[in-house]
Amino acid sequence: MNLTGKQKRFLRSKAHHLTPIFQVGKDGVNDNMIKQVGEALEKRELIKISILQNCLEDKDDVANALAEGTGASIVQIIGNTIVLYKESIENKVIELP
Q1: Which residue in 86, 69, 67, 68 sits closest to 77, CA to CA?
Q2: pLDDT of 16-33, one tens digit each?
Q3: 2 pLDDT band (50/70/90 cuts)?
Q4: Which domains does the chain have, with CATH numbers?
């Protein structure tokens, strides 16, 4: 799902007050993490993920791996924080403009 600029701006404003609920460390992204992020996206639709300094992978690679594994869209990568969005099937809360 590709987001328009207007939709990304809207989601960034929604994500501003969120705290990261996942951290990617030196082990990087694995299948278990992708599964947990996918479940969190189904419940919340919009989440932040923090990349720790000891992570050996590039933050763009981490974001792409998580987005592809969960079917989510990358809203923003700022500093060491990734914001992901995936429309929920059962718990739809966010209405995109």
Answers
A1: 67
A2: 999 999 999 998 899 999
A3: confident
A4: 5-85 (3.30.110.60)
Question: Residue ranges of the alpha helices (H) in 1-97?
Answer: 5-15, 31-44, 59-70
pTM (2 decimals)?
Answer: 0.91
What does the pLDDT read at residue 94?
85
8 contacts 94 by C-beta, under 8 angstroms: no
- Cα separations (Å) of 1 from 34, 52, 56, 77? 18, 27, 28, 17
What's the one-letter identity of residue 32? N
The sheet carrying 73-78 orders its strands as 22-24, 46-51, 81-85, 73-78
